[in-house]
Fold PBPe domain-containing protein.
Amino acid sequence: MVMKTGSSLKDLKEGIARVKAGNYAYMMESSMVEYYMERDCQLQSIGGLLDSKGYGIALPKGSPLRDILSRTVLQLQERTILEALKSKWWRDMREGPSCSPQAEKSRASPPQSVFGIFYVLVTGLIIALLLAFGEYCIESRHDSSRLKLTVLGKIRDWWIGLNCDKAEKARNKLRNMQLDTAGQELPK
């Protein structure tokens, strides 16, 4: 992917042209992505929405039309009239032919390279955990000569310490409950 610092695009069409030329990803508003994908089968959207926002109609402060327009837009949404209008003007009235079913299918599923980043993250996490465990074992070996403990003994002590902490927290919680209910009979 090409990344140019300090470069900005003149307009949306220049961004789409760069995407079609290859090695370029362009982020834009989801409504515009959908609109241009309906008209050009070479474009595809990868990933989901980063944010979801609605649209508003600007009116003067205190305008009596505000509540009327809000109710009307909500009614149009509830009756799916807005979706029908979008379908009519974006899909049915498009100037070119619709994309083939194969093109639609390939656009719907992101390429495998997108999932590669997750494989790298999981692999990194596993390596980090193994390194942390190895470091713990090496440090335990140094302590074991001084304290006459084996690495497994140190791990056992650590595990017992975790369980003791949980038991201690439970005892403290019970003690606090008894203090909170001082003078009251505890349920059986």
